[in-house]
Amino acid sequence: MSKLSRKYHLPYTRAIIGENGLLIKDQFTSGPSTSSSTLLARRSNGGDFGDDEDDEDGDASGSFQSSVFETASLISCVTCLSDTESKDENEALLLPSNTVIPYAKILDVTNMEAEDDGSPWPDHTALIEVTFAKPRRNHLVPKTIKLSVDTSVFPNMGTDVAEEILNRSYKNTKRNKSILVIINPHGGKGKANKLFLSKAKPILLASGCKIVVKETTYHLHAVDIAKNLDIDEYDVVACASGDGIPHEIMNGLFLRSDRAKAFQKLAITQLPCGSGNAMSISCHGTSNPSYAALALLKSVESRIDVMCCTQPSYKNQPRLSFLSQTYGIIAESDIDTEFIRFIGPARFELGVTMNVLQRKKYPCDIYFKYAAKTKNELKDHYLQHKDRLNNLRNDLESSSTFTLDIPRSGKESNLDDITITDDSFKLRWPFEDDVPSDWERIDPELTRNTGIFYTGKMPYIAPDTKFFPAALPDDGTMDFVLTDGRTPLTRIAPILMSLNRGSHVLQPEVEHSKILAFRLVPYAKNSVISVDGENFPYETLQVEVLPKLVKTLLKNGSYVETDFESM
Question: Which of the residues 57, 59, 235, 243 is marked catalytic?
Answer without folding.
Answer: 243
